[in-house]
């Protein structure tokens, strides 16, 4: 009898334990649903968001790796720089130190790399200018470049050799004009008044010839827009290229 009661008591205890366990499991919150609900309520992305961030980061790294790195290319001294003027330069109006501008008429290529494409802006200055004299002094003008600015990149300072041009001397032409005038004057004077007239006529003719030389002898050097000029680098110049 005691054994039977003991078995019944154990059965009842086991049944109560199972019921209590089931009730506890039913009362536990669903963490997955709660976290999902909380994320939805706060407007934040769900579980896939970290994967998206990882993919975006990978794309950024790939883009950075595929973009070519900037490098420096140095053009050696002696490199030719071909330029076309953008503004007019005239020895009658230009002054030493005056700036001028132009563009590259040909790409500047160093070891097969184009460091400045055709059309790049160039700047320079007039280093010397002499206006034409009436009787003796021929005109002169000297130029040099100071910078090249490839499109989309800052200007690079450069040093170049001087480009110069001088006008023709008036001396021979003036002598011919003066002498010719004197001869013609002497001939006219001789016909009009003998030997004395020839001397007077020669002086008058010489004066007339000198006057003609003065009136016609002034001729300036003019460099209109689109004039092509060639300079050479007098020192190495470094350019940043992609």
What does this 3D model show about the protein?
The protein has 242 residues and is α+β, with helices and mostly antiparallel strands. Among the domains are: 81-170 and 225-241, no CATH class; 172-216. The chain has helices at 2-27, 31-42, 49-66, 171-216; strands spanning 71-75, 80-85, 89-90, 99-104, 108-110, 113-116, 121-130, 140-149, 156-157, 163-166, 222-223, 228-232, 237-241. The strands form 4 sheets. Strands 2, 4, 7, 8, 9, 10 and 12 form a 7-stranded antiparallel β-sheet that branches. Strand 5 and strand 6 form a beta hairpin. The longest helix has 46 residues, at 171-216.
Defining key terms:
242 residues; alpha+beta; 7-stranded antiparallel sheet; two-stranded antiparallel ribbon; 4 helices; rod-shaped
Topology of helices and strands:
Layout lengths: L1 H26 L3 H12 L6 H18 L4 E5 L4 E6 L3 E2 L8 E6 L3 E3 L2 E4 L4 E10 L9 E10 L6 E2 L5 E4 L4 H46 L5 E2 L4 E5 L4 E5 L1
Antiparallel strand pairs: 1-13, 2-4, 2-12, 3-11, 4-7, 5-6, 7-8, 8-9, 8-10
In DSSP terms (H or I, runs of 4 or more residues), the helix count works out at 4
Report the portion of residues in β strands.
25-35%
How many strands, which pairing sense, and closed or not: the largest β-sheet? Answer: 7 strands, antiparallel
Q: So what's the overall shape?
A: rod-shaped
Low-confidence segments: 32-41, 173-178, 181-191, 197-207, 209-216
Category by helix and strand content: alpha+beta
Total number of beta strands: 13
Which percent bin holds the helix content? Answer: 40-55%
Query: What distance lies between the first and last C-alpha atoms, to the nearest angstrom?
Result: 100 Å
Report the radius of gyration as a whole number of Å: 48 Å
